[in-house]
Write a structure and sequence with these properties.
There is one protein chain. It contains five helices and no strands. It starts with 27 loop residues before the first helix and ends in an 11-residue tail after the last helix. The chain is mainly α.
């Protein structure tokens, strides 16, 4: 209730750890002080991307309402981000609501339970669609093929506690790429 009255965080991410560590939030009150409505913030290299779960969806067409930009203006940018993240996505019934920008990388393999659930939904697709339900595969920013140093998803199930195989996209991967450009300077401690 505190979040609804503006007196508490809507999502309390401060308990969300990466591999048991709270480094993502270290010194935020000193470095990014907040008065009033608290929000999740981070000074860690890679920021809050250190603790996200890899789920990555564009805005749905119904989300644009009062925005000054529409889906048509943002689609090319969504495609570039999807390619940057090597987004695993499939064209499926969710594409009606959440478009699949960029290349469609092969989606992650399903475990047996998820495979049965998807089959069940497919078997009942018509009545579910008639009732307004859409279903499909998750859109995930996860490495599914090994990098030069071997990082890839091993399907260990620890995604929401921090990937021990460094397979979930983090913004510091892009930072590392930017640092190789002569037109980019990284200044730590800010």
């Amino acid at each position: 209730m505190a979040a609804l009255t503006g007196r508490g965080p809507f999502l309390n991410l401060l308990g969300k750890k990466r591999l048991g560590s709270l480094f993502t939030y270290r010194d935020v009150d000193w470095g990014i002080p907040m008065i009033g409505n608290p929000i999740a913030r981070s000074l860690a290299r890679g920021g809050l991307s250190n603790i996200w779960g890899a789920s990555c969806y564009p805005l749905g067409t119904h989300d644009y309402g009062l925005w000054p930009l529409g889906n048509d203006e943002l689609t090319p940018h969504y495609a570039k981000v999807a390619d940057l993240l090597h987004l695993n996505q499939a064209k499926d019934d969710l594409s009606d609501v959440y478009p699949t920008p960029g290349r469609c990388q092969a989606p992650m393999p399903l475990n047996e339970r998820a495979h049965r659930l998807l089959e069940h939904w497919q078997a009942h697709r018509s009545p579910l669609r008639a009732a307004g339900f859409r279903f499909g595969r998750a859109r995930l920013a996860v490495r599914t093929s090994p990098t030069a140093s071997g990082e890839t998803c091993e399907r260990c199930g620890l995604c929401l506690t921090g990937c021990p195989y460094d397979a979930i996209y983090r913004a510091d991967w892009t930072l590392d790429q930017l640092r190789s450009s002569e037109n980019f300077t990284y200044r730590s401690g800010f």
